[in-house]
Amino acid sequence: MIMDKYLVNDLKEDIKKYLYSLYAKGIENARKEELYTCICRCLLEKIGKNWYFSKIQQSDKTVYILSFEYLPGKFLEINAKRLGIFEELKSSLKEMDISFSEILKVEKEPALGNGDLGTGSSFIHQMLTNRNINTIAYGLRYENGDMEQKILNGKQVSFANDWLSDGNVWEHKKAFNYYINFKDYMVKSKVHDYPIVSEDGKFVNTLRLFESAPQNPVDFEYFSSGNIQKAFSKYINDKSITQFLYPDDSTENGKKLRFRQEYFYAVSVVEDILRRFLKKEKNIEKLSDEVRIIVNDVHPALTIIYLIEKLTSVYNLSMKKAFNICKKIFNFIEYSVLDSKNECISLDIIKSENKKFFHSILKIDEFIIKNNYGDSIIKNNSVILENVLINFSSNVSFFSKDIITNYKNSTFNFINLNIDITKFLKISNSKTFNFIKNYTGIDILEYEESKKLSDFIDDESFLKELDRFKLANKFKLSEEIKEKRGLTINPYSIFEMQFSTIHEINRQLLNAFKIANLYYKLKDNSNIYIAPITFFIGGKASNGYFMAKEIIKFVIALSNMINKDKYIKEKIKLVFVENYNVSTSQKFISAVDVFDSYVVKKYNNHNFELLKSAYNFSNIVSTCGGILNNFEINNSIYNIDIDEDNLDDYDAVKYYYKNEELKNTIDHLINEPYSNFPYEFKIIFDQIIKYNDSFLIFKSLNKSMEAEFKVNNDFMNEIKWNKNKINNFLWANEFNFEHNFNYIGKIWKIE
């Protein structure tokens, strides 16, 4: 359903009407923030109508998505395009002498996630919406969101991301609340809805976020006596639950706050699902006929415990019936393979916060063991979240066949999960997308049609034009970096990028080692013939993750040393991209020439940034684990084949001494004067030696250097270079969710 003709033709008048009613202003004296709000209201008028009709036309079966992260990106531009009024909106604003680009800058990106989990959760929600499947995605309304990352004095400093400080025009506050009991107090759960619009604008689903709030914000007695801190202590305590994504749980208080957050989420979700179900159906035993739940990663695991507690204690079902209902309802998708194994909650903390919930866990664990329904959910006096989800899910899915093999469980499933191609190609790289459509007649967003792109792989004219559009994106990005950071980037250099959460398994450290090694090679011999390269590394580190924050310090110090060194004649540059998010991703990925993925294969479940780069016609350097082994490896991908097995005899110290090139690089870094290289590199070196190079940085350096020189050599061959890009696009398209939906819908039982 496209926008009503009246609204398109009279868009200017509608904006004026909203300015009058909301701000008592005209176009001539309206601030851009006020104009932004009024434009969004125009879109919401149509979205609201479609939202209403989508709800009343829904079938009895509802799919619920549970995740602690979502990355929907900004709403205005994408919703205007999905509603079919983007060009009309631009024209209307131009006639009113309003800059649309300036209006778009007003919008703050929802700070609801920071990595693959957020990308995957939002993608599943969007694709189910595109298929008109009744779906509600549940999240927490983080008031200060994920941290805002700033680099100050060479290190990551985290700040509150106040994306809700001015409210959010896309948000609809519901008139009902839920109440969550802890040991000595009760917290209110406020409900806020955001519309998620289908690709054709006809169907609208809901992103529902829960906000923690106190029942009685201020203690009047304390306030009257002048004890302001005590008067607001309950408000501060209760509001803290949904202030930030993932509280640092390295302390006892942090662990308690993490439990409160996950328990608050579990109760809010279950109460909302049951309320919605019981509005239409009185028989609770039919819950499994009408409800399907997709759990993204381990954080929502307590939802299962609370649902069983509710079914057995309130609705008097037997434990076996409750188990069978959950087993039909829940589907678990594992994202962070390494981290998930460490996700647990102390029983002592649970007991101190909610004794009834503590006893429910003990009963459920006893039931599982007695009936041989899986592994115990309790280990070392803690609840193992992964075991809860595996035991009570009808389907456990991974993105990597390698990971399933490592688990040695034949019942686990493999799924191909993609990205929102529209967001990362049609919107962020629209000129390239439109060129391909005009030149070839192919809509590359359509799975079957996109395969025809292979017919143009030998068309040199097409390949050169494709390269020209990539170069235009690189010029645009270079200009923005120059404007914001004062750093001059050569747009004709190879733009080589690695974006991911800063984590040892993602091996940003290996990439930095490789860059340092290349730098010292050039220092020794500045006549080495290579094409200029600009390296980009970006991502955020968890506040409690020591090694990740040290890696960021190292990368920043390395970039300072390289970028000011005129001796190497700017053959290489290194840029650390701070505060990496959806908006940043759209800008950088559209300009990527080479994407680096150095993940440890046995832990690599997925990397959505790699897929984004392939869809934006990039070359790829990868260890080829995880998703890259799900299909036949594309010959166009630069494969760094590292043997990660049979490491019984591996000794990092001996490796350091026997590898002259590695030793030379490390010794240089350790001995560099602080004025030139402002970082104490021995901190990282000692950590690698202490844990015997457990992430195989030393072992992988030579292979990564070989791949780097091969990439550089192929870059000189324009035709081969651009053929590789086409092949990578076609390879990535095999992850098409829509194409694989019959299989996915079947295992999730939502077909």
Explain the overall architecture.
- With 751 residues, this protein is an alpha/beta fold.
- It is built from 33 helices and 20 strands.
- It is globular.
- What is the 3D form? globular
Residue runs with pLDDT of under 50 for 5 or more positions: none
Largest sheet: 9 strands, mixed
Say how many strands there are.
20
Number of helices: 33
Q: How would you write the strand order of the largest sheet?
A: 5-6-7-2-1-8-9-13-14
Distance between the termini: 24 Å
Can you give the helix content as a percent range? 40-55%
What's the Cα radius of gyration? 27 Å
User: Can you give the mean pLDDT?
Assistant: 90
Percent of residues in β-strands = 5-15%
Structural class, by secondary structure, is alpha/beta
How is this structure best summarized?
The protein is an alpha/beta fold and 751 residues long.
What is the secondary structure topology, with strand pairs?
Blueprint: H1 5-9, H2 11-23, H3 32-56, E1 62-66, H4 76-82, H5 86-95, H6 100-106, H7 116-130, E2 135-140, E3 148-152, E4 155-159, E5 172-181, E6 186-197, E7 204-214, H8 220-224, H9 228-231, H10 233-239, H11 252-280, H12 287-290, E8 291-296, H13 302-313, H14 319-329, E9 330-333, H15 337-340, E10 344-346, H16 347-353, H17 355-370, E11 378-379, E12 382-384, H18 385-392, E13 395-398, H19 401-407, E14 413-414, H20 421-427, H21 430-440, H22 447-450, H23 460-485, E15 494-499, H24 508-524, E16 533-538, H25 546-563, E17 572-577, H26 582-589, E18 594-597, H27 608-615, E19 619-622, E20 638-639, H28 652-658, H29 660-671, H30 682-690, H31 697-715, H32 718-732, H33 741-747
Parallel strand pairs: 1-2, 1-8, 2-7, 8-9, 9-13, 13-14, 15-16, 15-18, 16-17, 18-19, 19-20
Antiparallel strand pairs: 3-4, 5-6, 6-7, 10-12, 11-12
Helix pairs in contact: 2-3, 3-6, 11-13, 13-14, 13-17, 16-17, 21-23, 23-32, 24-25, 24-29, 24-31
